[in-house]
Amino acid sequence: MAGLALVSIQEPVAGVDLANLLPNRAEAATAAATPLLPGLLDDVFIWEILVRLDPKSLLRCRAVRRAWRRATSTRRFLLAHHARQPAFPIADGDQLVLGVHLHDILAFDLRAAAKAHLHTVARLDQDFYLEASCDGLLVLSTFAKGGSGCCISICNPVTREHASLAGPPWDFTAFGMYLHRPTGEYRLLLQRGSNRDSPEEQIDCYVFPLGSDQPPRYIGWPDMESVVFNLPIQLRDNLHWYPYYHLSESEQLQSEGKPVIVFDTVAESFRQMHAPIVPTKSYLFEMDDTIGIYCNDGDKNTVSIWVLQNYESEVWDLKYRIRLPVEEIRGQFEGCNDYRDVNLWDVDVVSGDGGVLLLVSFGRWVLHIDTDGKLIDSFYSGLLGLRIYECRLKQSLVQHAFFPALEGYVVNASPFI
Question: Which domain of life does this protein belong to (predicted)?
Fold first, then answer.
């Protein structure tokens, strides 16, 4: 199998201090009369060239000239730069390097202009679970020492900032993060087991503004049975889940009309959205301006993909029914233990370059299948326990005031390597 290179984009850029990127005001008057790039209007250079660079290239440009650093450090520019960045599907996995355990967070670059690559966006010195992705920020969790409670943290892989929520290990788990537009606050959506004020087997939900010194605020619970939430998909200021119910394997494959759960991030309330008749074990995934649901049959022979065509009327369209080349896939995985057992394969659907594609992973290998069911690429990740997520990462250099207010705030230090 032809391997594709692992391209790292998580290393700090030489000569750039991410904690000291604000412009020097004393130099502003002199710089104003000097063009940023001779022969080119400043507006063209800033808003047509610099704003299109990837974060790593932009940081290198900042190190070239102070005037370039000033021009690209304003909040207006950083927000525009973030808006221009592609949204990459996220993955994570583990590896051992010289006996040291490392946890990698990765992104798939699936643009047609370049061969598919798996980029390392962060390398961490301990295990974390990815809980949510929002505006270039990742919500991570890890079990507390002794197995009591959960430690939740926030990181920006590009600026290499990391901070934990204050206090002892929580009995909360994070299952969403969002920008609350009325206040401009970034908030976590939290859940934990039922309390005395809620019916048995209901999910209690709380909201916590990042940087707040107040305890999480109780907001009730969604009207549903006890479920497990996968990572949320954000669209139109709403978070969406197709929940995973506690059912047997045979029950999970039965087709039912379970609703999509929607959380309105402005009103901070739950509602339900109509979903197509799909097996209970189905998954939402993020697309450019809509969402999709995919599922596969028990033998991993066929993957069905539904796309939301009209958000207001909740109309779904069966866009693809893809037959997997099962025997060809087995041939690619040959040599791995239990490679013939399709139940051990992970089949994921991600969007890329305006369309969708299938990623079939097993062991340390990932296969790329197109919508015609053709195996078009394969690569060796080198990672143990590789997991591909349905949400995406849009990298950002935007600075956030809440970070220094969080416990153990660090820049370019552990858990980053």
Answer: Eukaryota
